[in-house]
């Protein structure tokens, strides 16, 4: 029976290991995306089984000392291994399955310098189209063109500083063209999402549009919209 309990505890730590290494292994190119996601699924399955079995064992056998501590850690490990993939899945279900987000769906900023970097990407550089625009406008109606009572040069400088503050990898910035292009890399899986910012004059000063697009994946789990919101907040801070 002790050996069986030891196996339950071992499974708890195995689920956490699978969870922890899935992203870095994909990021390093060791495994493909399908394998990394399979590891996440197995982390969830094993974590769920570990969580339930260790709780049952804990209440039936009432372990003491070190064994009780290890059992408690296995329960926590199982809970973490279930929570993280499940929370991402639920979040993905709550947002539209799109990956190309912009504040101007009628005339989105175009990638220029970044276009060659996306040559091997599964998601093409061109804007995703009308259906994506409809889904975005329904899910993220707050993402609209930013207008400021400052000159285009001032807005461009603030946008450039905001981009740097976001920690993005700068690809190109052209004040004459009013264009900034950068790449954002997610921490865990290392997914690369590309950003282009367009600054233009308008009747009252200047305006800014931004577009964030994932290189891989049908759904971005809301990440691109979140990135645009964060940038807008940083931009406003730069303009104060």
Write the layout of secondary structure elements.
Blueprint: H1 2-27, H2 33-61, H3 65-94, E1 100-102, H4 130-139, E2 146-148, H5 152-165, E3 169-174, E4 179-185, E5 192-202, E6 205-214, H6 223-239
Antiparallel strand pairs: 1-6, 2-6, 3-4, 4-5, 5-6
Biggest β-sheet, characterized? 6 strands, antiparallel
> Span from first to last CA?
66 Å
Q: What string, H for helix and E for strand, traces the elements in order?
A: HHHEHEHEEEEH
Percent strand equals 15-25%
What is the β-strand count?
A: 6
How much helical structure, as a percent, in the residues?
40-55%
Query: pLDDT below 50 for ≥5 consecutive residues: which ranges?
Result: none
The helix/strand class is alpha+beta
Mean pLDDT: 92
Keywords:
240 residues; alpha+beta; six-stranded antiparallel β-sheet
Description of the structure:
- α1 (2-27) packs across α3 and α5 crosses α6 (223-239).
- The protein has 240 residues and is α+β, with helices and mostly antiparallel strands.
- Strands 1, 2, 3, 4, 5 and 6 form a six-stranded antiparallel sheet that branches.
- It has helices at residues 2-27, 33-61, 65-94, 130-139, 152-165, 223-239; strands at 100-102, 146-148, 169-174, 179-185, 192-202, 205-214.
